[in-house]
From TrEMBL:
Consists of two distinct domains; an N-terminal heme-containing oxygen-binding domain and a C-terminal reductase domain with binding sites for FAD and NAD(P)H. Pfam families: FAD_binding_6, Globin, NAD_binding_1. Its EC number is 1.14.12.17. The lineage of its organism: Bacteria, Bacillati, Bacillota, Bacilli, Bacillales. The record marks 85, 401 as: Influences the redox potential of the prosthetic heme and FAD groups. Residues 153-264 form the FAD-binding FR-type domain. PANTHER family: FLAVOHEMOPROTEIN. InterPro entries: Cbr1-like_FAD-bd_dom (IPR008333), FAD-bd_FR_type (IPR017927), Flavoprot_Pyr_Nucl_cyt_Rdtase (IPR001709), FNR_nucleotide-bd (IPR039261), Globin (IPR000971), Globin-like_sf (IPR009050), Globin/Proto (IPR012292), Hmp (IPR023950). Is involved in NO detoxification in an aerobic process, termed nitric oxide dioxygenase (NOD) reaction that utilizes O(2) and NAD(P)H to convert NO to nitrate, which protects the bacterium from various noxious nitrogen compounds. Therefore, plays a central role in the inducible response to nitrosative stress. NADP(+) binds at residues 280-285. This is Flavohemoprotein. It catalyses: 2 nitric oxide + NADH + 2 O2 = 2 nitrate + NAD(+) + H(+); 2 nitric oxide + NADPH + 2 O2 = 2 nitrate + NADP(+) + H(+). The keyword Transcription regulation does not apply. Residues 150-418 are annotated as: Reductase.
Amino acid sequence: MPLSPQTIATIKSTVPVLKVRGTEITKCFYNRMFARHPELLNIFNHSHQKQGRQQGALANAVYAAAANIDNLETILPAVMQIAHKHRSLGVKPEHYPIVGRHLLEAIQEVLGDAASDEVLQAWGEAYGVIADAFIGVENALYEEVASGQGGWEGFRPFIVERKVMESDVIASFYLVPQDGGELAAFRPGQYISVKMDIPGLEHTHIRQYSLSTAPGKPYYRISVKREEESEHRPAGIVSGYLHEKVREGDIVHLSAPAGEFVLEPAAAERKDPVVLISGGVGQTPLISMLHTLAAEQPQRPVIYIHAAQNGEVHALRDEVLELASRHEPLSCYFCYERPTDQDRSAGLYNKEGYIELAWLKDILPASTASSYYFCGPVPFMEVVYEHLKELGVEDAAIHYEFFGPSGTLSRPTAASRG
């Protein structure tokens, strides 16, 4: 049922206050919801809650919905990205009334008298329309995955067939179905969710990890960075457990592949270049794309640029170089922020320091008529995006993904996952 002009006008009137107090509202929302429904802590990423990233992402989503309430089609790309994440986590229709109730209560608590009955009623109606849109998209995704060849619903047990240390901080896990059945297909760039019940912890923990090899293998591969505690974030609970405790032969539970940050399909004879730029473990979805390009579009020029601190933490380097040795159109460049003496003596990198505009001008195609994909830490992506815009690259040619809650690099359609 469409919203009335009066409801739309009321929602629009709340946009300024949401811009200022949106995160305050979403913090209150999560506190209220988890206090009454602690079982939902089995779905949400606790680390993102502690860092405030999830609250900020939800505030941005609520603000975008309010600003575009008269034309919700404009936020459809964001709906699709969130819906993929929800499907991978196991969010179901019955969760939406819980979210709606606590969101309205949070708006009322934070805004006080400014949250009039008219405002709360309008937001209740608007939330119902938005929730129905999400439920419809997610139901279609659930059905598509469950009915597809090799697909499944929920979380399926997989055996860790192999565990390989790729660097000092990244390990790859080769995963095969415990039931010996088929694997669901995926698109290069997609991720799976890993659900872990960790001894000593009350709640289940779910994390998304990109599939780091091309589709069509008899296994899934994820390459996981062990996240150490830092000033800005706690140590990674799941990544630490995978590194320290999970061994070959152990069982992990996976959702079927999901995600909207994917390599665009193209004909094998396509000749316009593809540029892949990664920082740290952000290389994982791009490695999948790299393998796929070499296999399916072998004549297409590909430029792969990877930034790492040094060779000790640079994972999958030899795999990329071996691929480049067999595919002449593939050019690889490595940038090390703080190379070791061994890195220098062995000539393991092409540039010291950071990725800079002048260097990109030297190694990228003169024409900006290329497709650009990048992923890595947020500050890294901000710099890459700025450089690409300075080079004159159009937004339509730029694709990127946040590892974690959604964000934006001056445009609202970036993919994300947590």
